Amino acid sequence: MNFQDTICAVATPPGVGALAIIRVSGPEAISLVDAVFKGKSLKHAEGNTIVYGHIVDGEKVVDEVLVSVFRNPRSFTGEDSLEISTHGSPFIIRYVMKLLVQKGCRPAGPGEFTQRAFLNGRLDLVQAEAVADLIAADSEAAHKTALNQLRGGFSRKLAILREDLIHFASLVELELDFGEEDVEFADRDDLKALILNLQDQIRPLIQSFESGNAIKEGFPVAIIGAPNAGKSTLLNALLNEDRAIVTDIAGTTRDIIEDTLIIDGIKFRFIDTAGIRETEDLIEAMGIERSKKALQDARLVLFLYDSTQGYEFLQDLQGLIREDQTLFWVRNKTDIDESSIREGEIRISARAQVGIEALKKQISQSVADLKTTDTTITNVRHFDHLTKAYSALDDVLTGLHSGITGDFLAQDIRLALHHLGEITGTISTDDLLKNIFGKFCIGK
Ligand code: GDP
Description:
The protein is an alpha/beta fold. Helix content is 47%, strand content 20%.
């Protein structure tokens, strides 16, 4: 893939900083920057070197800069690329960008550098998406997962799965070429074993999505309790030191407030406790409705009750807890009530901030087992294709079982290959053709 135009963009965030970086990539990158640069000639600079000089507008010096030079194909985009480190004044940045555009650079659209890296074969789609995730990562766990995907572990795994399947697809397609002669190159028992094996490998990938997605977006936590149990007080106590981000999401029917908290490098989202905050005047039924809604979306549930009041309110809700949810019983206001402990409950005083650290530990430990590996799925697009590939493989199995002909089998196998290939952006039909004609040389 060769792009004709040369693009430029500011790579550092807006605002004043000590330094800023302007990135330029494309066939004319070096000569275009050279046209506004005074110093050692960039045209003669080797790749992976840094050149000192000045950005000039005619005779006028605009800034003293360092230019990092990367030469095709050894750059992020695979093209000639430069990074101009200027001083971080918005005036200088605008000025340099204006000069570059005047010389013939085009301001880049969103993601264009990474898109070029993909189209030039420097990254596959999974890795390109991982770049975006890496930039967006705001917790240690999210960072680690994105970095793993950037390194290509998941891509390699997919490549291996596809290779096995392509081999069999080739054999089945070969049978089609001998249509009349009723031959079977692809042993049906072997094919069945292969499909089962592939499904065994795809299943955990699909299953990893739930935690993978939660690691990226945050594990949803609901604090449920009767009015005045101390939910708001607890939330404030939890957020006190570690408050990370507060997101206000304007819902369509009412406002939902999400408070995000990072505990031991893992992100948690406390959902819709706002609704239950002002329950003092609300009739109990309404409180329960809101609790149910919060419960539904939660991965972790804190059942909070006032030690002096008891937990009838919660008993009504307990039946709604699902198997995939973790429930904690938390007894609050233990500063004024010393009643003996019930088994398995966590004792706190939200107001006196007692037991909060221990509660946090329990929260983070409950998801710590969901370790990410380099094949954890965090992307809904990947999840979608994997699910479809899996179901196409199901169809292959059904087909094998009922003894359908090779052409129908081939269709389902092709569909599974298509979905696996879509994930990394590989075009499956090409591969298939290459494999058939490359490996088997049937001389047709
Ligand atoms: P919510 O309706 O569940 O959100 O409850 P609040 O957080 O608004 O608390 C209700 C009342 O209980 C407030 O007056 C709090 O100060 C009080 N409260 C909360 N936690 C504690 C605690 O640990 N000990 C005591 N003694 N009072 C508490």
